[in-house]
């Protein structure tokens, strides 16, 4: 199953964590437990009263697989075409176990 | 690049580890194992709310409690990070 995600290596991905955080980064590596290595990752913070904010997470980080809910391939063109700073949205709630 | 290879390549380097409880450990990586258990030294521990701080000479963190860790970007280029294959194991 991790082989499917292997196709996304060196692509820009969005990771949804169990806490409801959305993190965008270049997928540099992964393993069978879906521990992920992200390069140049940025967290997108959503709120219903102000637009999206970006919180950079540092050049090289590893996210432990048991905190990962979903890994999605980001369509770079579609993403660049959106004016995300103007988008207001409720924060994604924490995943219930 | 495999995550555990990257962790091994990070020994003797600064590492920032956030646990699932929100506490943040910043220190030098002394040792690690295949379960992601780590041993750090000269650690600054920050509470989840960012209001409380501790200085620890050394600490041991169980891998299963880790949410994420951050290392220096230059480590990605090290051969030890790129070429080591993980041995198969079951999670602890």
UniProtKB/TrEMBL annotation, chain A:
Compartmental location: Nucleus
InterPro entries for this protein: Lsm8 (IPR034103), LSM_dom_sf (IPR010920), PTHR15588 (IPR044642), Sm_dom_euk/arc (IPR001163)
Molecular function GO terms recorded: mRNA binding
GO cellular component terms attached to this protein's record: precatalytic spliceosome; U4/U6 x U5 tri-snRNP complex; U6 snRNP
GO biological process: mRNA splicing, via spliceosome
Keyword terms, alphabetized: mRNA processing, mRNA splicing, Nucleus, Ribonucleoprotein, RNA-binding, Spliceosome
Pfam families (UniProt xref): LSM
Annotated ranges, domain Sm: 3-73
Assembly notes: LSm subunits form a heteromer with a doughnut shape.
Family membership noted in the UniProt record: Belongs to the snRNP Sm proteins family.
Reported function: Plays role in pre-mRNA splicing as component of the U4/U6-U5 tri-snRNP complex that is involved in spliceosome assembly, and as component of the precatalytic spliceosome (spliceosome B complex). The heptameric LSM2-8 complex binds specifically to the 3'-terminal U-tract of U6 snRNA.
Name under which the protein is recorded: U6 snRNA-associated Sm-like protein LSm8
UniProt source species: Cafeteria roenbergensis (Marine flagellate)
TrEMBL record, chain B:
The entry's keywords: mRNA processing, mRNA splicing, Nucleus, Ribonucleoprotein, RNA-binding, Spliceosome
Alphabetical list of CDD domains matching this protein: LSm4
Signal peptide (from-to): none
GO cellular component, as recorded: spliceosomal complex
GO terms, molecular function: RNA binding
Positions of the Sm domain: 2-75
Nucleus in keyword set: yes
GO biological process: mRNA splicing, via spliceosome; nuclear-transcribed mRNA catabolic process
Annotated compartments: Nucleus
InterPro entries: Lsm4 (IPR034101), LSm4/Sm_D1/D3 (IPR027141), LSM_dom_sf (IPR010920), Sm (IPR047575), Sm_dom_euk/arc (IPR001163)
SUPFAM superfamilies documented for this protein: Sm-like ribonucleoproteins (SSF50182)
Keyword flag rRNA-binding: no
Oligomeric and partner information: LSm subunits form a heteromer with a doughnut shape.
Role this protein plays: Binds specifically to the 3'-terminal U-tract of U6 snRNA.
Similarity field: Belongs to the snRNP Sm proteins family.
Name the UniProt record assigns to this protein: U6 snRNA-associated Sm-like protein LSm4
Species for this entry: Cafeteria roenbergensis
């Amino acid at each position: 199953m991790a082989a499917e995600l292997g196709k996304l290596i060196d692509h820009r991905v969005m990771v949804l964590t169990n806490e409801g955080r959305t993190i965008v980064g270049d997928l540099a590596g992964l393993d069978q437990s879906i521990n992920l290595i992200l390069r140049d990752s940025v967290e997108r913070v959503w709120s219903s009263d102000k637009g999206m904010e970006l919180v950079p997470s540092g050049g090289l980080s590893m996210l432990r697989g048991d905190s990962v809910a979903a890994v999605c391939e980001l369509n770079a063109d579609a993403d660049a075409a959106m004016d995300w700073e103007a988008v207001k949205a409720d924060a994604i709630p924490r995943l219930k176990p | 690049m495999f995550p555990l290879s990257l962790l091994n390549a990070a020994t003797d380097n600064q590492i920032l580890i956030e646990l699932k409880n929100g506490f943040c450990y910043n220190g030098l990586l002394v040792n690690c194992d295949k379960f992601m258990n780590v041993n750090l030294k000269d650690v600054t521990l920050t509470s989840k709310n960012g209001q409380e701080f501790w200085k620890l000479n050394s600490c041991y963190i169980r891998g299963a409690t880790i949410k994420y860790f951050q290392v220096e970007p230059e480590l990605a280029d090290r051969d030890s990070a790129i070429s080591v294959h993980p041995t198969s194991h079951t999670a602890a």
